Amino acid sequence: ATTDGDLQNDPRDLPEMIRHAEDGHDIVCGWRKNRKDAWLTRRVPSGMANWLISWSTGVKLHDYGCSLKVFRTEVVKPLKLYGEMHRFLPAIASEMGVSITEVVVNHRARKHGISKYGLSRTFRVILDLLTVKFLLSYSTRPLQMFGLIGVPMGLAGFLIGAYLSYQRLFSHESIANRPLLLFAVLLIFAGIQFVTMGLLAEIMSRTYHESQDKPIYVIREVCESSPGELRPHSLSL
Question: Which in 64, 66, 136, 237 has the greatest CB count within 10 A?
Answer without folding.
Answer: 66
